[in-house]
Design brief:
The chain is an alpha+beta fold. It has two domains: about 1-60, no CATH class; about 70-285, Fumarylacetoacetate hydrolase, domain 2, CATH 3.90.850. The chain has helices at about 30-35, 40-50, 75-85, 160-170, 225-230; strands at about 1-5, 15-20, 20-25, 60, 70, 100-105, 110, 115, 125, 130-135, 150-160, 160, 185-195, 205-210, 210-215, 245, 265-270, 275-285. Strand 17 and strand 18 form a beta hairpin. The longest helix is centred in the N-terminal third of the chain and has 14 residues, at about 40-50. It is globular and about 55 Å long.
Length: about 290
């Protein structure tokens, strides 16, 4: 099932994306609340969506406001390309440790919203990622049980201010303002439940103004989804509605190509079984 958050003349509602469009889910709560109650309400949501009328005026928002954002680095191809252009070596520890940084949930925007260009950067970049949405509470989750804790998947465009990142990385903290501004994290267009997606070999691609800039398949993730969940849950409880990012797919950023976004550019990120996340880039300081 593909679940969305939408507006249709009122406050945000949870909906279901069917072949003909968006249908209301008949659930009085947000996406995180739905995920928490999914086992109890799934059949009712399915029945309501199939029997309710399609909503032609529905406007999609970010499918959820995550409880938390953790972003990993799992694609070796991206890391090799990126670190070369940043003038840094790949740390040997990367091959054994699925480290992550934490993002800010309040920065999240959704499909078709304009991506703000912060006035302090001249090199704005996109990053194509798969986002894993946690659906089942757990702590010290063993790798072999990790996928049982996945509710579904969405696309994550993790925006970056690359010139700022170059200054911040040597400090050994962050990333900070290289990643954090209003609208710097884009999620969408939907959350596809885990049964809709073959996460072991899922094709990810990104286009800018209709031109394919890069992409990869999750089959080439060095650290697998199970590894990320097991590592993040060590001595810490994961809750429904938390989001883990795969890190950038190979070729999924302009940094790897030494190509940079321009105001007005249209970014289109596609993931098999999930859909296409589209956003235009705003003007610097706008």
């Amino acid at each position: 099932m593909k679940l969305v958050t939408y507006r249709d003349g009122g406050g945000p509602r949870v909906g279901v994306q069917l072949a003909d469009g968006i249908h209301d889910a008949g659930f009085d709560g947000d996406m995180v609340a739905l995920i928490e109650r999914w086992d109890d309400v799934r059949d009712a949501v399915t029945k309501r969506a199939e029997s309710s009328p399609m909503l032609p005026g529905a406007v999609l928002e970010a499918p959820l406001r995550p409880r938390s954002l953790r972003d990993f680095l799992t694609f070796e191809g991206h890391l090799k390309n990126a670190m070369t252009n940043l003038g840094r070596p790949i740390a040997s520890e990367w091959y054994t440790t699925p480290a992550y940084y934490k993002g800010m949930p309040d920065t999240v925007i959704g499909p078709d919203q304009e991506i703000a260009w912060p006035g302090y950067t001249e090199k704005l970049d996109h990053e194509l990622e798969l986002a894993i949405v946690i659906g089942k509470r757990g702590k010290d989750i063993p790798r072999e049980r990790a996928l049982e804790h996945v509710f579904g998947y969405t696309i994550w465009n993790d925006m970056s201010a690359r010139d700022v990142q170059t200054r911040e990385l040597p400090v050994g903290m962050g990333p900070a303002k290289a990643k954090d501004w209003d609208g710097s994290n884009v999620l969408g267009p939907c959350v596809a439940t885990a049964d809709e997606v073959d996460v072991n070999d899922l094709r990810l691609t990104v286009k800018v103004n209709g031109e394919t800039w890069g992409g990869d398949t999750t089959a080439r993730m060095h650290h697998r989804v199970e590894d990320l969940i097991a590592y993040a849950s060590q001595a810490q409880t994961l809750y429904p509605g938390e989001v883990l990012g795969s890190g950038t797919a190979t070729g999924g950023s302009g940094l790897e190509l030494n190509r940079w976004l321009k105001p007005g550019d249209l970014i289109e990120m596609e993931a098999e079984g999930i859909g296409v996340l589209r956003n235009r880039v705003g003007r610097p300081g706008g």
